[in-house]
Amino acid sequence: MSKRRFLQSRLPVLAAFAAAAVSSALYLTWRGVGRADVVYVCALIGFFAATCLAADYFRHLPLYREFRFRTGALDDALRVRSPVTAEEAELVRRLHDAHRAFFTELAETRRGHERHLEYVQLWVHQMKTPLSVISLSLEQTPDWSRPEEAAAWLDSLREETERLADGLDAMLHAARLGRPETDLAVRRTDLVALARACIAERKTAFIRSGVAPRLEADAPRIEAETDPKWIRFVLHQLLSNAIKYSALAGRTRPVVRVAVAREPSGARLTVADEGIGIPPEDVPRVFEPFFTGENGRKTREATGMGLYLAKQVLDRLGHRIELVSRPGEGTTVTVRFETRSIAATDDICRNIGI
């Protein structure tokens, strides 16, 4: 801070000393004191004013120097270390707290941006595979006079098209996940109906992989306060994993069970498969971004983002996700809805007029 700005900031103090000098001069003149004495008193007041201002300035000088030598860098806040008054100390403390909070958020934003870029690169690489298959299939058109060959050709195109659609849907949800507050629409959702719809939408994948779906529910209707669009996305990720790794198990007609049930703490939605399972050392890391583990080497479709995105969605919705797996036996993933989220079963819905 310059001396001029310092004096401007102390104008009330200067005004107070000036008022004291003028009032003293008027009073002494009224009492008949000599002019020399009046001048002396005014000079003495001026000396005290100058001394106080000088002492105040030099007391704050280290702090002013820290302000003066700012570099414009983001860490300038950490250079302010010489507060004098209690107010300045509190201001500096809050400045440091804000600085730390800002850099923590900035670091998290950068990590998220890096994860997003990595995911985009991985996604683009994976989308090349179905595009290449489709392009190759179009170059090698089947003999339409042979129905079996034509059906196999069309089924191959349909499979790769579904992979493209799934990839685009995952990318769209990953982009929306960055600002969930603008995309969440929480309302009463029938978990049984939603599970049934998701299974129907995966019908072709179940048939193609030779996996049998089975839906189990404690009641015809179990509702929870959630966002049906995001829960649908989560369930599709879980079903996709269950189908993919059940097909790798080599069993005859493996079953994927989707169960919706009530429990004392609320309700749960479970997807259990009879697939190859997950090695114990990989289980703690399955929700990390881009982690594919040992099983990821067995399929070209593994991105390591499905369960990560599912957990991010459920965390934002206030739900919990749990995973239990045994190699060679299968994997069970459970989504838990707290009691406060449970809206009603069939009877409760009728009672409240739904």
From TrEMBL:
It is found in: Cell membrane. It catalyses: ATP + protein L-histidine = ADP + protein N-phospho-L-histidine. The lineage of its organism: Bacteria, Bacillati, Bacillota, Bacilli, Bacillales. InterPro entries: BphY/WalK/GraS-like (IPR050351), HATPase_C_sf (IPR036890), HATPase_dom (IPR003594), His_kinase_dom (IPR005467), HisK_dim/P_dom (IPR003661), HisK_dim/P_sf (IPR036097), Sig_transdc_His_kin-like_C (IPR004358). GO terms for biological process: cellular response to phosphate starvation. It is an enzyme of class 2 (transferase). It comes from the Bacteria. It holds the Pfam family HisKA. GO terms for molecular function: ATP binding; phosphoprotein phosphatase activity; phosphorelay sensor kinase activity. Residues 122-341 form the Histidine kinase domain. This is histidine kinase. It is a multi-pass membrane protein. The chain crosses the membrane at residues 38-58. PROSITE patterns: HIS_KIN.
